[in-house]
Amino acid sequence: MSVELSANEIITHKQPFDYDSLLEDLNNDLSNKVSNIQQVDCANNNYISSMTALELEYNEYLKKDLVKICEYYKLSVRKKKKADLIDDIIEYELNPENFLLTERRKMLWEYIYELIEDEYLNKYIIFN
Description:
The chain has helices spanning 19-59, 63-72, 82-93, 99-117. The protein folds into 2 domains: 18-60; 61-128. The relative contact order is 0.06. It contains 4 helices and no strands. It is an all-alpha fold. 64% of the residues lie in helices and 0% in strands. It is elongated and about 85 Å long. The longest helix has 41 residues, at 19-59.
């Protein structure tokens, strides 16, 4: 396949060059990219803040309590140290796909602690 062009077939369109319009488009693109980067940084900072807060919270738990949480989430607990359990739980809970199950677990745990504090019902609750 070959293509031949003659001088008569070439059509040139001369458009006026608008420097201000080009500069405005460039600035808009640049500001959009900066805004996107700032949003990502903000999201990363929120993620890191959440991770740190959860780590501080779970460091106060006993290992047996962390094992209960892992078992609820169906996470492996075999041959793991407390720090590894904490990392697994935090990774699981910060995953947006697990939000509903995480909130449900926290709500149920609050109910259990409420029942344990009740004078009458605490003798029927075994959560050791």
